[in-house]
Specification:
By secondary structure, this protein is an all-alpha fold. It has one domain. The chain is built from three helices and no strands. The longest helix has 12 residues. The two termini are 15 Å apart.
Length: 37
């Protein structure tokens, strides 16, 4: 759950920046967590 919170926080803090979104997706191997939000 901690990692999910980090993904969401980074996504929000960076203002939906696609480059950050893609970097996070690659790092964690999980895009569904953010897409579902």
């Amino acid at each position: 759950m901690g990692e999910a919170n980090i993904r969401v926080a980074a996504f929000i803090i960076n203002g939906n920046n696609n480059s950050v979104y893609n970097a996070r997706s690659a790092s964690f191997g999980d895009t569904q967590t953010i897409e579902e939000l």
